[in-house]
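Hi support team,

I submitted a single chain yesterday and got back a structure, but I'm not sure I'm reading the token output correctly. Could someone confirm the output below corresponds to the sequence I sent? I've pasted both exactly as they appear in my results page.

Thanks,
R.
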Amino acid sequence: MNEAMPAVHPARLAAGLDPSLSRWLWLVKWLLAVPHYVVLFFLWVAFVGTSVVAFFSILFTGRYPRPLFDFNTGVLRWSWRVAYYAYGALATDRYPPFTLADVPDYPAHWDVAYPEQLSRGLVLVKWWLLAVPHYLVLGFLLGGLKLPWASGGLIALLAIFAGVSLAATGRYPRGLFDLVIGLNRWVLRVVAYAALLTDVYPPFRLDQGGDEPGAAS
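Hi R., thanks for writing in. Yes, this is the structure output for that exact sequence:
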């Protein structure tokens, strides 16, 4: 009997493991990523402000203004690329680009399908009530509700294990990669929901691997 494929979530994460990772570069990525962390600090300040504006727009019109949607999606995309390079995955040695836009040849991707209409009622309870069960999961995965995956939590710990494996064997264990990507996918689905970018509730499901489940090959 064929099992039904999971529906494609509007928040989509994809990643490809770098086949030639350095054994030792991961030890200094915390330093190399500092310029990104500085920029992301200001981007996240702006993200909070634009999210407040979007909240009232959705409340009164049922629509998320497209320029604000694209900006906030871009901030999450940028954060994911930096996390993928640094201690949210350590799965590439390619330095992240300084852009909100998707970079087709970069190995980490993130996008959210733009919703033409959003619920005016759900916007009142998404981030502080409906998402609470997921926040408990995120607190464990991230070592607290913080972005972008700077330190602590299960994800960072697994990434460090991958770094140790690189140093010892020159290989990033494929099973570990799939797990780390699945955990990050869960995180970003929840963030997209709490940031009002979608009305689709995040599934309590660990979709592992670099390809988005249900997506066309």
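A quick pointer for reading it: The two ends are 22 Å apart (CA to CA). Let us know if anything else looks off.

Best,
Support desk
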